[in-house]
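Example 269, ligand phosphoenolpyruvate.
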Amino acid sequence: MNEQKRPVIIAGNWKMNKTRAEAEALAKAICQAAEGQRDLPAVVLAPPFTSLPAVVSVCSGSQVKVGAQNMDHRDAGAYTGEVAPPMLVDLGISYVIIGHSERRQYFGESNATVNLKLKAALQHHLIPIVCVGETLDERENGLTDAVVSRQTAAALADLERSQLDTLIIAYEPVWAIGTGKVCEAFEANRVCKLIRVTIANLYKDKELAQSVPVLYGGSVKASNIDEQLACSDIDGSLVGGASLNANEFISLIKSGQKRISLQAAESCS
Ligand code: PEP
């Protein structure tokens, strides 16, 4: 279990799902479940752009935060179809997912664009959740560690240590996303630790690396989350499919809560 007092984070990526009314209903159910709860993990909902204002309105005054699934790195201009960081800030968004594997796979995002977006997010005080992870082919060819370290280092290129206070990284093996094939908790923990080692080596700073929350994502559900959250280097979950159902997502939040309560009990004993 995380002994570094890093926050526990449960984030739901709704991808291209939910109309505005459906998004409002789902957000309402989650906010109601979170109301008055102690030891709540940081709960982040990332609906599609079209539902962001509605979900921000539902979540305002609650403990639940809202994130975008993507953004452009530029502030404004002739970039048809894109959404700029100041527009998200203007809506009251606090988090942004950057470099999700579906963005890399279907929309040509590269390590270089991930780096630009991360810099833009930090500049606009949006909390970035940067996704890294290997494909099945890369895993089968023994390239997992090289790919994950390279993606992590490239995302952080030219960033100063002092800029990384709010950074969150999500280890999302591409072969585990939306497939029902979950990465074994032991292996997911090993790769999350490798991400911290990469950060420690880049900045020659173990303390910094220990302070960065690293989430696991890939077919997380109520039946497997506890095993993941029991691992020392996994600080929470980035959840796709299971975040679309209120009851399922609320059980994930409860698992996060259980971990925080256990941690508190351990630190008292
Ligand atoms: C994701 O899209 O980030 C994800 C982890 O999806 P799923 O939980 O459906 O595998």
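Summary: The first strand starts at residue 9 and ends at 13.
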